[in-house]
Each structure stands twice: as C-alpha cells, then as structure tokens.
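Z., the sequence and structure:
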Amino acid sequence: MRYILAVALSCLGTLSFGQQDNAKKLILSAPTYYITIRAQRSEPGEIHFQGASNLPPQSEIYLEVSTFYQGGWKEYSDDLCVRIAQDGFFEGDIHPKSNLKFDNNLVLRAVFETRLCHQPEDTIKVLGKHGEGLANVGDVRIPYTELSSRSRNPQLFQVSGWYYGLEAIDRVLTGGSWPSR
C-alpha cells in the first residue's frame, strides 16, 4: 500500500511541475505583436496610464487622449511618446492641452508606427522602415504590398504611404483605483 501511495504522489508531483512549465510558456508567448493599455484619471488635470507590449524594448508608443467627434477624433492632450522598458511595460501621466480640461467619456489611444515618435534603429531593423514586420506574414515586398489583409493581427492597420501600425484604445476610468504593484 505504501508503495502505491509513494508512486501516486510521485506522479502528481511530476504532473504539477509539468503544468507549471507549460503555464510559463503560454504566458510568455504571443502570436503577433501587440499593445495593451489602461487609463484612469488620477487628478482633474491628469490621466495615469499603464501598458504592455512585446514590441522591441526602447520602441516608443504615441499616446493621445481623445473623444469621438463626428467622423474622427477630438484631441484633448498634446502628443506624448513613451518608451517601452526592457520588461515590456510602460507607464506615465498625460495632461490636457493648455486650453482644455479633461471631460468624461474620454479614451486613451496608444499607437505604434515607425514614423511616429523617434524609433531606435534596432526597432527599425526588426520591424522595417514602414512597419511591415508588424504583419507577421512571409514574402514582404514593401512598400508596394497590401499586408493588413494577409495578417491575422486584429490591432494592425495600414495608412497611406504603405505604413503599418498597431493601435489600442481604452476608456479613461474616472473612479476607483488600481491595485498597487
């Protein structure tokens, strides 16, 4: 009986270690490049944001507070570029334009394009001058190819000049608080 119990416990231990290893692999991988963002008004004149991305470290994300306006956007903040840290995270605060105040029902837009902000040379080498590497498709012949229709990345967009980018949007929360790290 002791032998059977010892074998069963040994198998359970091996199984749980294997599950932990698999869970780590799943957490650390992503099928495409991505940006995530969340935003919360921390003071009347300030919005705090936190984000994560698997873009190359030191790449810069363009941030803007906006609201939907007719067929486009009404901008409430000046342009802000923030660098992705080595661990893939970024955070900071964004303020309204000097002549505006933050209203309710705002969104924070996080955009990556190689022509926005100042992108490091390493980022350009990995993703291409036009961001064509964001599509994660083979046989890239930029700048004269349509890639967004061939990519499965739901954040990928294409703009004139054959530039590709990623965009994430979050509604700015006005109450409550986030858990501290």
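The two ends are 47 Å apart (CA to CA). Residues 1-30 form one domain.

Let me know what you think.
H.
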